[in-house]
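Forwarding the complex inputs:
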Amino acid sequence: MSELKHWKWLKGQLPGWIEKGIVTAEQSQRIMKEEPVVQGYNLLTRILISISALLIGLGVISFFAYNWQNMTKWMKLGTIFLSFIIAHGVGLWLGQKPERKVHAEFWHLLGSFLFGAAIILIAQIYHIDEHAPNGILLWSAGALMMMYILKSTPQMLLYATLVIVWQVMEIEFHTSQLWAVFYVSVSVILFSIYKKHWFPTAIATISIVVVSAIQSRFSVVNPMVVLLSLGAMSVGIGLLIRRSSYESCAVPPEVIGLVLYFIMLLAFTFPEIIKDSLLARKYTADAGFVYPLLIAFAVLTVWGLFLLPLKTFPERIKNLTQKSNLFVFAGFLLTMVILFAGISSASHESKHVLKNVAAFGFNIIALIHGIVLIFSGTGSGRTGISFAGCLIVVIVIIARFMSFTDNLLVRSFCFLLAGAFILAVSIKTSKVKKNAGGND
Amino acid sequence: MRVEMIKRKNTLIVIAVLLQCFVLAAICFQREMILDSGNIVYMRTAPVDPRDLFRGDYVRLNYEASSIPKDLIPKELLDNIESKACVYVIYETDDHQVLVPKKLSANKPPGQEKYIRAYTTGRMSWDASLRYGIEKYFMEQGKGRTLETGKTLKGIRIPLEMEVAIGKRNGIPVLKGYRYAEMGMNMEIAKRGDKKENESFGLTLKIINASNKPLAIVHPEDNRTFELELVSQSKEKEPIEIKGLENKNMPFSQSDIKIIAPESVYDIKIDLNGPGYQLQKGGGQILWKDLKGYQTLRIKYVSPAPDRLEGLKGFEYLWKGSLYSRNFNRYEFSY
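Prediction (whole assembly, two chains):
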C-alpha cells in the first residue's frame, strides 16, 4: 500500500474513531492537518500524465505554429500567456487537496509545456532566427525551476529531455559547452538523491551520460575513452548505492554502465577502431582538464572499489580467480587505454604496430573476462552471467576469425566451435541450476 | 506545520510562474521597443537557390548584405575574427531606404553611425559571411508559398525587400514586413561551346521596371555602369582582380539615359572578354577557364550620382538604387 493509500485509509477511519470516542472531532481535524500526505510513487500514472500533458502541449504548440494571419500578435500573445497562467493556477488550486495531487501535477506539467509553446510563439511572432538551441535551454530552465519547487518526477523527465534535445541541437554549431555537463549533473543528481527511487536515477544516469558523450567531442581525451570511463564510473556508483539502503536505485547506473563498458570493451578489440580513436590525434583542447580528471577519477573508483575491501594481495588474487569481478577488468582496460593513448601522443610513427599490440591486449582482456563470467555463471547456475560471458567470447572469436582468414572451411570450423561452446555452457549452467533446485 | 509548508510551496510556485512570465515579457518588450522606435531600413534579399527558399511555414531569407566584400572589412578583423563572432555592420541607406553596408566593425561603433548587429558564419577569408538572426520570415501555413515563388514579371524575378527595424542602442534587427523592389534584373549566360578563349562570349542582362511609372537607368555603350564584381575567393597569395575601365568617370551623354516603361524589359549584352571585364592575377591577364570553381562573381549596377546627370533629358525618371545579378562561376560557361 502506498503512502497516499495510508492517508486515505486514515481519513476513512477517523469518523469511526470519533464515534467510538477514540479521538475527538478537533483531534481528528488536527491529525488530518498535521499528517503530511506523501504521494505514493505510482509510476504508471505519472507516465500517463506526462504523455497526456506532452500531447496536449504539442497540440497547443502546433495550433499556434499554424500562425493564424487573422489573429493579431497581441491576441496570440494574450492567449498563450493566459493559458500558461491558467494551467499553473489550476495546478496550484488542485494542489491544495492532497487527493488531487496527481491532477495538480498534470496541470503544472501542461504549464511547463505552455512555457515552451510561448517561447516558440514569440520567436515566430518576431521572426527571431538567432541561435535556436537557446530557446530550448530557456525552456529547460523553466522546467528545472518547477521540478525543484514541485519535487515532480514528470517535470524532471521534461527537464532532462529538453537538456538532451538542446545538446543534440548544439551539435551542428560545434561549440564546446562543458558547463552543460555540470548544469544537468548537479540538478538531476541532487533530485535523484532526494527522490530515492529508481526512475529518477535512471533519468539522471541517461541524461548525464548523453550530455557528457556529446560534449566529449571537444575533449582532449578521445570520446570513446570518455564513454568507457563513464561506463566504469556508473557501475561503481551503482555498487556504492547498492551498499546503501536504497538498493533499487542501483539498477539504472549499473545496467547503463555495464552496457557502455561491454560495448567499449568489444570495440577496443578491433585494431582499426583503436587506430581511428585511441591512436588518432584529432583532439581539440577546449574542455581542458575536466575529462582527464574524469578518467583519473574513474580509474581510482574501479581500482579503489576492487582493492579497498580486501586486505592482502593473495586475497585480491583469490577474488579475481573465484568470481567475475568487473572492476579488475575495467581497471585493466582503463589502464591500457590510457597507456596506449599516452604512447600514441608521444610517438606518432609506429601506429601500425601499436594498434595491433593494443588490440591484442584488449582481446586478451575481453576473452579472460568472458571466460571468467562463464565459469562464474556455470558455477553458480546464473544463466544471465553465463550468457554475458558467452556473448563476449563468441563475438571476440568470430570477429578475429573473420579478420584473419577468408577461408570458408576455417570459418565454418569457427562457427561450429562457437556453437558447441555455447551449447556446452548452457547444458552445464542448467545442470547446476537443477542441482541447486532452481527452475530452468 | 503542513499548512505552512503548503503556503511556502504555493508562494514559490507563484514566484516561478511570474519569473517565467517576466522572461517572456522581457523578450517581447525588447522587440516591441525596436519595432516602435528603431531605424527602419529595407534589406534586399539576394537571389538564392529555390531549393533553400522555403521550408515548412517560413520563408528562408538570404540578404545581399549577408556577404560583406573584403574592401569593407578592416585588415585586423579579417585576420583575427573567429567563426560565430558578434560583429557590427555600419550602414547607410539609399534613396529607397535600402541598407547599404559601409564597413564591418568588431565593436559597437561610437558616435552617430548607424549599425546593425550580425554574427559571422565562418572564418573570414575573402568576404565576410554574416547572419543577422532574421533569416526566417514566419507566415501562416500554406501562405508562405506565395512569398517563396516571389513576384515574377515576364520571367524576371523582382527582388524582395524586407522591412527591418534596427535597435538604435544595440543594433538588433527585427523583421517588420516586406515589399518588392521597383526594378528587377535577370541574367542569361551564353554557353561558350567551341569558341576560342579570346573570342567574345558573355551574358545578357534583362532589366524590368516592376513599378507603375517610367523609370530610367544609365547605360552607356561601354557598359561602364555594369561592373563585374568578385564575390568570393579563398585567401590566395595572388588573388584574382578585375581590370576595370580606365575612363570610368567620363561624363554621360543623353543617349546613355534609358527610360523603361512600366512592365517593360531592357536588354544589355555584356562581353566577358571585352574591356572592363578582364580578369587579372599578379598583374597579368588570365583566362576565364583559369578560374577555380569557388571563385564566384556577379554583375553590379549602381545608379550614378545625380550631379553627373544633371541637365540630361529624362533625369527626373532616374531610378536611384543598385541591382545585383545572381552569383556565377566558370562552370556555367560549360568549360
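Residues 2-37 of chain B form the longest helix (36 residues).
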